[in-house]
Write a structure and sequence with these properties.
The complex is a heterodimer of chains A (234) and B (364). In chain A, 34% of the residues lie in helices and 27% in strands. With 234 residues, chain A is of the alpha/beta class. In chain A, the strands form two sheets. In chain A, strands 6-7-8-3-9-10 form a six-stranded mixed β-sheet, sandwiched between helices. A four-stranded antiparallel β-sheet of chain A has the order 2-1-4-5, covered by helices on one side. The radius of gyration of chain B is 27 Å and the shape is elongated. Classes of the chains: A alpha/beta (234), B alpha/beta (364).
């Protein structure tokens, strides 16, 4: 399988704090890879290193074989940050137009209709984002990351603070995208939903302590749940 | 009461934990006051030409020639007026080129008239742009004449720039316009940029294919548009409501305001990369803008500042834009005559944009 994301001995220090320690990660095309673990475990830092928002203290990141940061590669990545990261006093459509133009999306108007339909926000495009509920903001944020029809989706805690029905539909979106060959890197501290991933990396204190298919991992270590597994290894 | 104190305590704690704000709280007032103190003083060293055509008066008893003009020149305060002998025509040209503020001209019969007819007439060629400077020259000249001769005298003024009865507002307006456009440009840019940083949108921007320069230029275009709009309103109000004196081109005045705002936007970009939140961004206003206002010849002439601060003010973009605006508005200069200031302002904006490329969107 084609490796889409690859990190080599990745290390990141903030002052004295070692946030990411010797991470070697390979993510294959079309996979849903879940980066799981507790808050403060280094998941967001790792994601930002992969995107090139942060510079590694040591080691390298390659996306599509190109060393990051690389602006051309960023065109193929849809990123959904942890905060909703929307222009609150603009309408949904104006938000989408801004990022669509920055990413150079072709047939932008059509594409906006498509993504809004996909996330179930049709009819809301002329509403000011500030008035949206938390769940709607999450969906709006997700729709922005989908705009450039990216090869890779990097979603940082996309399901935090949303209600269970929306969480279910979010996972349906992810699976649908994965079947058409999109690679998805998702971070979550919800161990239950992590079972939906094809591969997971258990991250704690900056290190990836376990990696593999969640079901196989459970079997191998005779654990009843990911929580059980996590506690065994921590 | 306990609830009230909880709020007060909370606010002070926030500042206590924000060490930079804490530092600025003590540093800024001290710094601003010192800059104020260091940049004020008395007007001195004004370049004034003297064209003495006086042929003197022959005193028949002593057979000596008496030069009343020389005594007047002798009695002038050389600390305030920096005198230089010059032919009247050359002096006039030099004043037109801003090489001097005035010229005192004594005609051939000056001594004769003042002794025989008991009435003296002195011509004073003046750059009347700044009322405080021209009033200083007039009062110094008057003082010296009164000390020298007892009789009547008349100072005949010839104004190169400005007009008779130049109001303070006429002199102030260009500087105030420069100041206002600088503050608007600086604050608008720094606050909106810092806000995006705190909202997390910046994060999305960093992960997008846009380059720092593309983003900065995007900002510049939008804010320059706003600034031109605001400047036009300001200028039109000044001209039509306050009836300020505008001799030069309206278009050139607007162009200068635009250029000034460009400089301050690029400056704001640089400082926004050092500000983590709106708190710190607002502090930059007092740290950067107020001192710049004080040393830029807006409220008092640069000539009244101590020589050290005069040299410092040469590096203030606001001093250059205010002077260029006065050149156009009051002196009626054209583009070619203010090219030096324009080049300086462009260089300044350019320098800041280069520095920005090092700091803005820098990946940590």
């Amino acid at each position: 399988m084609e490796k889409v994301i690859e990190t080599k001995n990745l290390k990141k220090k903030f002052g004295k704090i070692l946030a990411v320690e010797n991470v070697n990660l390979e993510i294959e095309k079309g996979k849903i890879f879940g980066l799981i673990g507790p808050n403060g475990g280094g998941k967001t830092t790792l994601v930002r290193l992969i995107l090139g928002i942060l510079r590694p203290t040591e080691g390298e990141v390659f996306v599509f074989g190109k060393k990051m940061p690389n602006r051309k590669v960023l065109k193929k990545i849809g990123y959904m940050p942890q905060e909703s990261a929307l222009y609150e006093n603009l309408t949904l459509k104006e938000n989408l137009l801004t990022f669509g133009e920055i990413f150079g999306v072709k047939n932008l108007k059509e594409r906006i209709k498509e993504v809004l339909k996909f996330v179930g926000l049709e009819g809301w495009e002329n509403e000011i984002v500030e008035n949206f509920s938390g769940g709607m903001k999450k969906r709006a944020s997700f729709s922005i990351s989908l705009l450039p029809d990216p090869e890779i989706l990097i979603l940082d805690e996309p399901t935090v603070g949303i209600d269970p029905p929306l969480m279910v539909s979010f996972w349906e979106y992810f699976k649908e995208l994965s079947t058409i060959g999109k690679t998805i890197l998702i971070t979550t501290h919800n161990l239950q939903e992590a079972m939906n991933c094809q591969e997971i990396g258990l991250m704690s204190r900056g290190k990836i302590i376990l990696k593999g298919n969640p079901f196989e991992l459970l079997k191998e270590y005779k654990a009843t749940s990911l929580l059980d597994l996590f506690l065994k290894f921590q | 009461m306990r609830k009230v104190f909880a709020i007060s305590k909370n606010l002070l704690l926030k500042i206590w934990h924000d060490k930079r704000t804490l530092f600025l709280i003590f540093f800024v007032p001290c710094f601003v006051m010192l800059v104020f103190g260091w940049s004020t003083g008395d007007i001195k060293n004004l370049k004034v030409f003297v064209s003495n055509k006086d042929e003197g008066f022959l005193d028949l008893r002593t057979e000596e020639k008496i030069f009343v003009s020389k005594e007047i020149i002798e009695n002038l305060d050389k600390g305030i007026l920096n005198l230089e002998e010059e032919d009247e025509g050359v002096a006039r040209e030099k004043i037109k080129n801003k090489e001097g503020f005035g010229a005192i001209v004594f005609e051939r019969d000056f001594s004769k008239d003042s002794i025989l007819k008991n009435e003296a007439k002195i011509k004073l060629i003046l750059d009347a742009t700044s009322p405080s400077i021209s009033e200083t020259i007039i009062s110094q000249l008057r003082k010296s004449i009164e000390k020298t001769i007892k009789g009547k005298f008349e100072i005949e003024k010839e104004l190169i720039f400005g007009k008779e009865e130049m109001r303070f507002i006429d002199f102030f307006a260009p500087g105030i316009i420069a100041m206002t456009s600088a503050i608007i440009a600086f604050m608008l840019t720094i606050l909106s940029f810092v806000k995006e940083k705190t909202l997390g949108i910046y994060e999305r921007i960093l992960a997008s294919p846009i380059s720092p320069f593309e983003m900065i230029f995007g900002y510049l275009i939008a804010f320059s548009f706003l600034n031109i709009l605001q400047s036009s309103i300001m200028l039109l109000t000044a001209i039509f409501v306050l009836k300020i004196y505008l001799k030069g081109s309206l278009f050139l005045t607007l162009f200068l305001i635009f250029l000034n705002s460009l400089v301050f936007q690029s400056m704001a970009f640089l400082f926004s990369s050092f500000a983590k939140n709106e708190y710190q961004a607002a502090q930059f206003q007092s740290l950067i803008l107020i001192p710049l206002l004080l040393i830029s010849g807006i409220f008092w002439p640069i000539e009244s500042m101590p020589s050290f601060m005069q040299r410092v003010s040469k590096f203030s973009p606001l001093a250059h834009s205010a002077e260029a605006l006065r050149d156009v508005a009051i002196r009626g200069f054209e583009l070619s005559q203010i090219s030096k200031e324009i080049v300086f302002l462009f260089l300044f904006a350019f320098l800041f944009l280069i520095l920005n490329s090092l700091f803005i969107m820098r990946r940590k």
